Amino acid sequence: MTVPTLGGAAAWAVDAVAAPLASVRRVLPAAHGLPLYVGLGALALAGALEAPTALGLGIGYAVLRRKGPFARFTA
Q1: Are 21 and 27 in contact (CB under 8 A)?
Q2: What is the pTM of this model?
């Protein structure tokens, strides 16, 4: 029995996974903020925070990291 190669399908799958990750890396101001964003998303999914509140906190943190007092800590 011959096992078909998955070269084209595997490359397509890697591209499909890598594209959203690349766009997230462009949007997030720093890698150090990723745990905060994941945590806010998890709290919103769990219902501990309302989605608009989590979104507002994430945007506020991103602004502080980019232009505020946390800007000197971004590398």
Answers
A1: no
A2: 0.52
- Contact between 44 and 50 under an 8 Å Cβ cutoff? The reply is yes
Q: Tally the C-alpha atoms within 13 A of residue 47's C-alpha that lie toward its C-beta.
A: 0
Side chain identity, residue 16: A
Q: CA 15: distance to chain centroid?
A: 17
Show the DSSP H helices in 1-75 as ranges: 7-27, 34-46, 51-67
- Token digits of residue 24: 């997230």
- Tens-digit pLDDT profile for residues 24-57: 666 655 567 788 888 999 999 999 999 999 999 9
